[in-house]
Design a protein that fits this description.
The complex is a heterodimer. In chain A, 25% of the residues lie in helices and 20% in strands. By secondary structure, chain A is an alpha+beta fold. Chain B is built from eight helices and 29 strands. The chains are: A alpha+beta, B alpha/beta.
Chain lengths: 260, 505
């Protein structure tokens, strides 16, 4: 029992022991926090890429769906003199001169005579949800893709009240930005030029071809497929590398309804 | 107690050190776990996103696959034609073919599930009124047939797309929610819709369209509504709908007999019973066509048929649209160059037409060199209600008492005895020579079209050569234009999609 009370045996660690263990502890903690910091940064970047990806995907899915469903009901469903607003005159509407129907030529990189459809503009026409024939427009202004829908009226398609739909769309970025992107993503901007958001394939006598190469068949009324290329940038740069992250998504809408 | 205290004392320093190590280890594990969880979470969100997008697109394509299966199997030349395995599944005769209230399903169950019970078709009642499907079922008007999308080959089963069922039924104004006759409301749920390729708008201009008519014209075809439901294992659904109608060759001819060249060689029957009549025998009110049409190439005064006394022994037997100018109304021999449809104008377009018919024919017969095909080679089952499409890639001889029905294309020489005849269309495109002989009183009801597009060795000509029709002897009863036989012989190429929509659920 007397031995239990011996104070010498109850002493904790020597100073040296304590210092060594604290030093080791600090070293391990430092390493762990360093790793944690990297992981945090990585996570922040990845979740940004992910949310850009998600936004682009939802947008792309909706565009594909709108193109697929466009053109209902077609004019061939009416034997009587139906009002112009009762049917879809063309699954892909156009301006100018939509009514009376004088088709324009679809061009790319500023060519053609259509104001819409074009590289960054698309108007589909159809009754997609049973609420009447609508014009649904997608238009890229700057780096924001806008979407809007209004009931069809006589005349050229006008879609009021368009709302931002997908942000940070870089298809039509400035030359300086494109040069920057090219360094990180050489394949995304071939030729260093803006990449069309919409590319149109027209029905032609010898099979479908890109509308701008379709000669006499180049008309919005002949559009069969719409290829969509959506390039979206993350809102912030990578916290670690200070790099810009881009996400490119591709889709194809195929209109099934006849154009008359 | 003492022994325990002794034990404590003995191991006390070691225990303190072990505790610190444990704490440090636990702390480290906690930190690493946090990092791992955050990584797992981000990966999980990504795969969920990918999953959502993929399932929406998959359901869309699965439902489209169902629509396409049904559309393809409506076609009688498809080996999987519905009626091949289920007699009269889609009736091929009658007006309408399918009455409102008749419902057909193609089912595509996984294992032994009863798809119509598990995935009930609520859309039908939306289209035809509450209780409509139950009423159709009670009346025995619902028929189902299994899908052919899952195939077994060499002992392996290849699963098809994941659509559940496809419904085929007559379309009405109300069911497709379209005010077809523009009377202000899309309310007709009684009269099945037809598609009339010959429909004219109020100004008299061609405007093929759907029509609401209890007595549709002979040119119209009933349209069917094809609706497909796809449900993926994760629950995503799509309901898509087509409105389809048969698309035919829609061949139009300018005259009862067309000899498609400007120096045609014609020798009519020498009997007074031999006649060619451009008046539609099926529609007395129709404007008559010329009895004989030729291609004068714009030189309207050039007519070597009626100017040759030997060509038409009984000129008054060639009746129909009168030739222009002061010429007497008979013989009705008219330059039809201006009214030939584009696919009948040049050797290239005519040969392309023959190719198109060949691809869609019930039978293509290629007789051995030096021989010819005969009626014995034609498809069995040919009848007035089952007209056939036959292409003879060579010579064809038709003798004996025989009548054919449908569309006959002969690329070589067509030789017939006048106790045989044809109801429908006979196109002799290629060598462009026809001879008739013997005794008999059969006739051609419909049209006979002759064009020489190839030389004797089979090379395509740059311009049409001389078309020849040579009757030796009496000539039988001749040729009578008949719009009904022409219509019945128009080959169905496919079922055309008139419209497509996605039905929100």
């Amino acid at each position: 029992m007397t031995r239990l009370r011996t104070p010498k045996r109850q002493a904790g660690f020597t100073l040296m022991e304590l210092m060594v263990s604290v030093a080791i502890f600090i070293l391990i903690c430092g390493a762990i926090f360093e790793l944690m910091g990297t992981t945090q940064n990585r996570f922040r970047t990845e979740s940004q890429v992910l949310s850009a990806f998600e936004g682009a995907r939802l947008g792309l899915d909706q565009i594909v769906r709108d193109v697929n469903d466009s053109g209902y009901p077609p004019q061939n469903h009416f034997s009587g003199a139906a009002p112009l607003t009762a049917y879809a005159a063309s699954p892909i509407a156009w301006s100018p001169n939509y009514a009376p129907a004088t088709p324009c030529q679809i061009g790319t990189a500023g060519g053609g005579t259509c104001a819409s459809p074009g590289d960054f503009d698309l108007i589909v026409e159809g009754d997609v949800d049973g609420s009447g024939v609508q014009w649904i427009r997608y238009r890229l202004l700057g780096t924001t893709l806008f979407r809007g829908a209004t009931l069809k009226v006589a005349g050229d398609p006008v879609v009021a009240g368009m709302l931002p739909y997908v942000l940070n769309v870089m298809n039509n970025a400035t030359p300086a930005q494109i040069a920057q992107f090219q360094a990180a993503y050489p394949a995304m901007f071939p030729g260093g030029t803006p990449q069309p958001l919409f590319q149109f394939t027209c029905d032609a006598p010898n099979g479908p071809v890109l509308c701008q190469n379709a000669g006499g068949s180049n008309s919005p009324a002949n559009v069969r497929d719409v290829d969509i290329t959506l390039i979206v940038m993350t809102p912030q740069r990578d916290a670690q590398t200070n790099q810009i992250h881009l996400v490119e998504l591709n889709g194809r809408g195929h209109r099934v309804n006849p154009n008359k | 107690m003492e022994s325990a205290t002794r034990k404590v004392r003995k191991f006390a320093p070691k225990r303190s050190e072990a505790g610190v190590a444990l704490l440090i280890a636990m702390f480290a594990v906690l930190l690493i776990s946090l990092a791992a969880i955050s990584l797992i979470l981000s990966a999980g969100t990504e795969s969920a996103l990918a999953g959502n997008y993929r399932s929406s697109a998959s359901a869309y394509y699965a439902a489209s696959a169902g629509l396409e299966e049904a559309r393809g199997r409506l076609l009688s030349k498809n080996p999987d034609f519905f009626n091949n395995t289920f007699a009269n599944f889609i009736p091929t005769a009658g007006t309408p073919l399918l009455a409102v209230g008749q419902v057909r399903y193609v089912t595509n169950p996984v294992a032994a599930e009863n798809v119509l019970a598990v995935y009930p078709d609520t859309q039908y009642d939306t289209e035809f009124g509450a209780g409509a499907l139950a009423a159709a079922t009670g009346a025995g008007n619902v028929k189902t047939i299994p899908s052919v999308s899952t195939v077994t080959s060499g002992g392996t089963t290849y699963k098809g797309p994941l659509f559940k069922w496809v419904r085929i039924n007559p379309a009405t104004e109300k069911s497709i929610r379209v005010d077809v006759d523009a009377d202000g409301v899309a309310n007709n749920s009684v009269i099945p819709l037809y598609y009339d390729p010959a429909h004219l708008d109020a100004g008299g201009n061609p405007e093929p369209s759907l029509i609401v008519s209890a007595a549709p014209p002979a040119t119209a075809f009933q349209v069917f509504e094809v609706t497909s439901l796809a449900v993926l294992p994760n629950g995503s659904q799509k309901l898509l709908q087509y409105v389809v109608t048969p698309a035919t060759l829609n061949l139009k001819f300018p005259s009862a007999l067309t000899l498609n060249s400007n120096n045609a060689s014609m020798h009519g029957g020498s009997s007074n019973f031999y006649q060619i009549n451009g008046q539609d025998q099926c529609n007395a009110a129709a404007l008559p066509l010329p009895a004989i049409g030729y291609d004068g190439g714009g030189a309207t005064n050039y007519n070597n048929i009626s100017s040759s006394p030997a060509a038409l022994p009984y000129p008054n037997n060639y009746t129909g649209a009168a030739p222009p100018g002061p010429a007497p109304p008979t013989p009705s021999v008219v330059d039809v160059a201006g009214s030939l449809s584009p696919n009948l104008q040049t050797p290239a377009s005519l040969d392309a037409l023959v190719q198109l018919i060949k691809q869609n024919a019930d039978k293509v017969i290629t007789p051995a060199v030096g021989t010819h095909a005969d009626p014995g080679d034609l498809p069995a089952g040919m009848s007035p209600t089952n007209p056939v499409t036959v292409v003879v890639n060579g010579d064809y001889s038709q003798f004996g008492t025989f009548t054919g029905y449908g569309l006959l294309v002969v690329t070589g020489h067509f030789d017939f005895g006048v106790s045989s005849g044809w109801r429908g269309m006979v196109l002799v495109i290629g060598q462009g020579t026809v001879t008739g002989s013997g005794l008999g009183s059969n006739e051609f009801d419909g049209v006979l079209f002759v064009a020489k597009t190839r030389n004797a060795s089979g090379t395509e000509l740059a311009a049409l050569g001389q078309a020849t029709l040579n009757m030796s002897g009496g000539g039988g009863s001749g040729i009578n234009y008949n719009g009904c036989w022409v219509n019945s012989a128009q080959t169905v190429l496919n079922y055309k999609v008139l419209s497509f929509r996605e039905i929100g659920q």
